[in-house]
Structures are given as C-alpha cells and as structure tokens.
Amino acid sequence: MGCIILLIGFVTLVAIGYFFVKKKYSYWEERGFPHLKATFPMGSVWGVGYKKHVSLFFQDAYREMKGKDVVGGMYFMIEPTLLVMDLDFTKTILIKDFQYFHDRGVYVNERDDPLTANLFGLSGQKWRVLRGKLSPTFTSGKMKMMHTTIIAVAEEFGKFLQPYAKKGEEVEWKDILARFTTDVIGNCAFGVDCNSLKDPNTEFRQVGKKIFQFGAVGFIKILFIQVFPNAAKALRMKTNSDEIANFFMKLLKDTIEYREKNNVKRNDFLSLLIQLKNTGKLEGDSVDLGKLTFEELAAQTFVFFGAGFETSSAAMSFALYELALNQEIQDRAREEIKSILEKHEGNFTYDACMELKYLERIIQETLRKYPVVDNVLRTATNDYQIPGDNRVIQKGIALAVPVYAIHHDPEIWPNPERFDPDRFTEENIRNRHSMAWMPFGEGPRMCIGMRFALMQTRVGLATILSKYRIDVTQKTPIPMVFSAASPFLSTPGGMWLKIEEIS
Asked: Cβ atoms within 10 A of the Cβ of 280, count?
C-alpha cells in the first residue's frame, strides 16, 4: 500500500511539473510574440556554453526572427526573455524610455559576495547614486591624468617585445596582451606594480585569470544564478570565489592604509576613490558627491580591474589579428603613428594619442566585428506597453540586445565579414543609425570606463605598430573560432601571430 501511495505521489509531482513547464513555455505564444521553440530543461538555449558561444546563438535567433517584429521571445531555461531586433526600439529601451529599463538584471549579493555590488550590477536608486559619485572620476581630464601611468607601462611593454621581434618569433598575443593590461590596470586601479610582463606567474595575474575561468560547469552555475537569483541568494551562492574576494579585499585594505599613513598621492583611479571615501569630494572640486564605504570602493575597483584588463586585451588581440591579415591597413596605421610621433618629438603624449584618427577607426572596426561584450542586457522594471501596440512587456522580463548580431547584419553593415576601418569616417558614421555600433552599450548605462578602455587600447597598439610588424603563422586561427564557455569573445587556442622588427 505504501509503495502505491509513493507511486501516486511521484506521478502527481511529475504531472504538476509537466503542466507547469508547459504553461511556462506558452508564455510568448499567449501574448502574441514571435518566439523560438523551447524544450526542458534548457529552454531555447541548448548548446550555449559548451557547443556555441552565446553571441552566435543570439545571431542565429536574430536572423530567424528579424523582420517579424521589433522583439522576439525565447526561454533561458524556463524564464521568458526578449531579443530586441529593431534599432529604433533598441534606442527606445536604452535611451528614450530608459526609466522602464534601467536595470541589467545582473546577480548582486552584497551579503555574501560584496564585490558584486558594483556599478555594472547594481540596480535602481543604488545604481543612480553610485553612478553620480563615480562619473567625475572618468572625465577626459582624469583620463589625461592617468595617461602618464599607462605610457610608463607601455614603454616596458615595448622593451619586453623586442627579443621576440629580433628572432621573428611566433607569439601568443592573447596572454601577453592580458599581462600588459593587467599591469596597466594594476597601476591605475590599485597603484600596484604587478610586473606580470616580467613574471606571468605573479599572484596578481593568476588571480586575475581566475575571475573569468568558468568552464562548462561554471557556466551552468552562472546561468542558474542569473535565472534564479532569489534561490541563489537563499543558497548564499557567489559568483566570486573566496580566494578572489579575499585577495582583492586584503590588497585594497593594505594599499589604502599605507597611502593614508604615509600621505602617498598618485595619479590613479584608487586615489580618486580614496578622496571620495574620506571626503565625498574630488580634489579641486567643491561638489559634494557623497562618501564611499570601503565595500563600495572595493567593488568598483574590482570591476574596473576585471572588466578592464580582459576586454581591452581581447580587443587588441583581435585588432592585431585583422592587421596581420590586412597588411596594407597595418602599413597605413604605422605611417600615421610615425608621422604623429615625429610631430610630438617621439613622445606618446596624451595629445599625440588623441590625434591617431586612423588607428581609432581600426579600433572601432575591430569592436564592430568583435564586440568583446557581445550583448546588452536590460530588465523591465515596470510593465511597459510597446509604442503603437497593445502588447505589454511585463515587469521583470529580461531583454537582450544582440550586439554581435547587429554588428554582422549585412543590411546595416554591407559585407560585414570584411575588415574596413573606413566604415568609421565621419560621413559614414553620420549616415548610419545611432544604434548600429554599440560595443560599450548606449544610454545612461553605457560603459563608464569607455574612455579609459579606448585610451589603453590605443596606446598598446601604437606601441606595437610603431616598432614591429605583425603577420600570420600556421598557428593563426583562420577562420576565427570563439570559445563557447567564455563570457567574452575569445579564441580557444590563443592568438598566435608573428612579430618582426621593422628594418
């Protein structure tokens, strides 16, 4: 009798689960949205993270549903999600009606994982207040202040490359450029000489690498956390390991204590944050921005480091890849760099770097073809009626703008696989939709560190191209393949390219 009761109970639970999931997967059909098919347990995203990078999945979905509507439905596991497929509507949610879509829906757990409470992840009023405090630290004047620090690291970087260039060696650029950007960010964010160029096994570099080392199992964990954030918080789940959190917290505590005790001042990001922590104001500015707590300071410094070194190094490696495949573009960039250097007596001054307009177009085209952050996420914070439509996007629904797919849409970018920096002449930019290129997002929540990222990328590439020629080898990944489990666009086997001295 007991076995029969257990069997009936089991069958009942399975039936309830079946009808629950079936009801979930009818969400978009009931509301009149075009949508992708879904099957339990992954919904519409089978293969993402272990067979296919999420950017390519979004591209396939974009191509399948584009033209049917301004948005299309899909399911991340059992959660309904919208894919935005129209540039005008993209502008609506990111800028015009931003008040309905101001949150990213990123997992934040201040209690168990305080480093997640950063500007990228925070929502609502907490985000608004923090953005107001931090925006003055990323002005062009503050970037100019940090430029000398970047140049000092770049000079060491140029010397580091010389022995490889003399021998005309094959170089794995993905790691080398990450070591360069680690040293740059380490200096600018923490005021620490990381020396990862000289020693790739320094603790700073090793911990930095672990931030984005997920693997297939880790990817599933992150997916679960994002889809079921309340359950994840109840289970006290973290996105950062204790090793990573403890390292950065101790490093910051020790560095701040040393600076305050010895009255040390440096032209870096940490110095600006310490000013906000102690006074709520930036030196030379009378505006009271409000004080930062130590935990707030740590979270912002952490995300500045993590996002800054990985994204910029990836962008530079993709730029070198395209320049190796397109030698005439590389030569033109080198001639511009040499001309600007002669004008500025051989110095990469801030003004000299800002004058590298063709190199800037190369970076823009690289970020068009390889947008390292390949999609923009938003969450509806209130019910929102689509303009000119009776359908409503309900509060809590996540939306994804498929940046990679848009950047490779032939109707927006003719012959999108061709690398052509002249797409970014002033005239061509003026004639395109303002949402056609958005590697840093758009609107009030666009990347606050964009100026810094572009500056260190420009300096890094100019340092390499001014002295060395880059070419393909048998190890160069042709055609390009992306790592499936990586949160950013990256190559699974590294970026192998040859480096030679220019005679």
From this structure: 14
Express as a percent the part of the chain with pLDDT over 90. Answer: 55
Nearest C-alpha neighbor of 340 from the set 466, 452, 453: 466
The model's pTM: 0.93
Tell the residue number behind the tokens 């190369």, with chain if given: 362
Identify the pLDDT of residue 490: 87
Pair type for strands 79-84 and 398-401:
parallel
> Is the Cβ–Cβ distance between 72 and 65 less than 8 Å?
yes
Q: How far is CA 331 from CA 15, 37, 65, 358, 454, in A?
A: 66, 48, 41, 11, 21
Low-confidence residues of the chain: pLDDT under 70: 1-2, 5-21, 214-219
Q: Is the dihedral of CA 19, 20, 22, 28 positive or negative?
A: positive
- Those residues with Cβ within 8 angstroms of residue 50's Cβ, 6 or more apart along the chain or in another chain: 216, 219, 484, 485
Alpha helix ranges (H) inside 186-293: 203-210, 215-227, 229-234, 242-262, 269-279
What is the 3-state secondary structure of 430-497?
HCCCCCCCCECECHHHCCCCHHHHHHHHHHHHHHHHCCEEEECCCCCCCCCCCCCCCCCCCCCCCCEE
DSSP codes of every residue in 297-354? HHHHHHHHHHHHHHHHHHHHHHHHHHHHH-HHHHHHHHHHHHHHHHHTTT---HHHHH
Residues in the chain: 503
DSSP assignment of 158-195 equals: HHHHHHHHHTT-EEEHHHHHHHHHHHHHIIIII-----
The DSSP code for 267 is S
Q: Are 452 and 181 in contact (CB under 8 A)?
A: no
263 vs 279: CA distance, rounded Å: 15
Residues 205 and 194: beta-carbon distance below 8 Å: yes
Give the C-alpha distances (Å, rounded to integers) separating 464 from 110, 196, 207, 287. 41, 18, 26, 41
Condensed to tens digits (0 to 9), the pLDDT of residues 49-73 reads 778 888 999 999 999 999 999 999 9
